[in-house]
Specification:
By secondary structure, this protein is of the alpha/beta class. Helices cover about 30% and strands about 25% of the residues. It is globular. The structure holds adenosine-5'-triphosphate and magnesium ion.
Length: about 260
């Protein structure tokens, strides 16, 4: 794949498809789709219901396997990994944030954030320290001992983001993380995600909200399982380049390169 980037992509899809069922009855949920997402990028995915957004995130997060094509995380083809290696990848590299059911209600914010580290066998004291650091980063250190029920929706999402990034994890896949939030809280979550990217972490998020997508370096538009358009931030003034109707790029990842962060 052509690229001006010196670094390896965090995430690559190479002609990846996901079909459900077989033969003429098969439903094509996605693809074939090819894309590269690089360290520090915030990429938004938009598209109508049923266009394949969640399918793409599931493939990217090793929760599902492509029927055809490849998914690579930091250059490693997921098809080559054992189940144990895939599980380790989800504990150490990839974090998920979903619209609902993000947190375990019986655990405090701190315990929720520490969970992936505990599952990975880190010593108790270390999990606590790192979980607190991550909660501090999202501005919730003081609420670390609260249970999810005693946190606002926005605070719960910030805990979920802290959990998704705790320890060495640095690829966050978020499926409508702002869907249940009011616009001000949703914007605060987007600002937080953007600041995580400024630290070199990578975020791919599905959103239906154009105002939230405007925080992204790139917006990919899906329709019927295909990337039909892409919007890329092109300069430091925040101006963006839009693919116009009729100028649909067949493989946008090969044409458009992400640019340095621009203020939004
Ligand atoms: N297990 C399955 N069996 C058959 N079809 C499926 C299955 N899972 C998903 N699909 C189909 O694949 C397509 C893409 O689904 P997906 O969940 O990725 O859409 P989406 O863009 O996330 O939609 P939404 O915005 O509603 O969440 C849809 O047409 C869906 O019905
Ligand atoms: Mg979905």
């Amino acid at each position: 794949m052509t690229s001006t980037h010196q670094t390896e992509p965090t995430l690559s899809l190479v002609d990846a498809s996901r079909l459900h069922g077989e033969g003429p009855q098969a439903v094509r949920a996605l693809g074939p789709v090819s894309l590269d997402i690089f360290p520090g990028e915030l990429v938004a995915i938009m598209g109508p219901s049923g266009s394949g957004k969640s399918t793409l995130l599931s493939l990217a997060g090793a929760l599902d396997r492509p029927t055809e094509g490849k998914v690579l995380i930091e250059g490693r083809d997921l098809a080559d990994l054992s189940l144990a290696e895939l599980a380790a990848l989800r504990r150490r590299v990839i974090g998920f944030v979903f619209q609902d059911l993000n947190l375990l209600p019986g655990l405090t914010a701190l315990e929720n954030v520490a969970l992936p580290l505990e599952l990975d066998g880190s010593p108790l004291e270390e999990t606590r320290t790192r979980a607190l650091e991550e909660l501090e980063r999202v501005g919730l250190k003081d609420l670390a001992h609260r249970f999810p029920d005693n946190l606002s929706g926005g605070e719960q999402q910030r805990v979920a983001i802290a959990r998704a990034f705790v320890g060495p994890r640095h690829l966050l896949l978020a499926d409508e993380p702002t869907g249940a939030l009011d616009s001000v809280t949703g914007e605060a979550v987007m600002r937080l995600l953007k600041s995580q990217c400024a630290r070199g972490r990578t975020v791919v998020l599905v959103t239906h909200d154009a105002a939230h997508a405007a925080w992204a370096d790139r917006v990919l538009f899906l329709r019927d399982g295909h990337i039909v358009d892409e919007t890329v931030a092109i300069d430091s003034t925040g101006a963006t380049q839009h693919g116009l109707p009729g100028q649909v790029q067949q493989n946008p990842a090969q044409h458009s390169q992400p640019q340095p962060l621009s203020p939004v």
